């Protein structure tokens, strides 16, 4: 089960249907079986028969709660949960697990640390390091066999773990040679995956 976002977490409340609508707000309270949201400029009337989604950004991950309208007062709108919080998966490319040596350098400062790439896709990668680097952009030197490349990445999330920090990274502007390195690495992983499945 995904960790629930807490009070004060910014959210977007989305009414599904035709036409769809959305409103910004923040979580006022989490209760068993539901959530209360302070909504900015909400509708004059909430539709008790409509399906709503409460979308929160918590620890770099988008979480969504399917919900139904319950009640409102001057402070908040109450929704009944129609299931647990779920991670909203927005990946366009499949991830492949790997174990590759990496060196992570902060673009903002001079920090440099060793790490391990634990998964990679055409859009980004996850790298485990001892400590979170400063800033939102990092350069990651990745070594795969006899080939290596330094890739500029943007941090889209971090996760504290027992043995360090997992950085969730999206590739920034890559040069053609860097894109070729990533594509070649992915092609090798796809081939290994096909062989293992057959």
Q: How would you describe the overall organization of this protein?
A:
The model has no long low-confidence stretch (mean pLDDT 87). The protein starts with 9 loop residues before the first strand and ends with a helix. It contains one helix and 13 strands, in the order βββββββββββββα. A hairpin with a 5-residue loop joins β1 and β2. The radius of gyration is 21 Å and the shape is elongated. The protein has 198 residues and is mostly beta strands. The strands form two sheets. The chain has a six-stranded antiparallel barrel. It has a six-stranded antiparallel beta barrel with strand order 8-9-10-13-12-11. The protein has two domains: 78 residues, Pnp Oxidase, Chain A; 102 residues, Thrombin, subunit H (Beta Barrel).
Please render the helix and strand layout as text.
Blueprint: E1 10-15, E2 21-31, E3 34-39, E4 52-58, E5 61-72, E6 77-81, E7 86-87, E8 96-106, E9 112-120, E10 124-129, E11 137-144, E12 147-161, E13 164-171, H1 176-197
Antiparallel strand pairs: 1-2, 1-4, 2-3, 3-6, 4-5, 5-6, 5-7, 8-9, 8-11, 9-10, 10-13, 11-12, 12-13
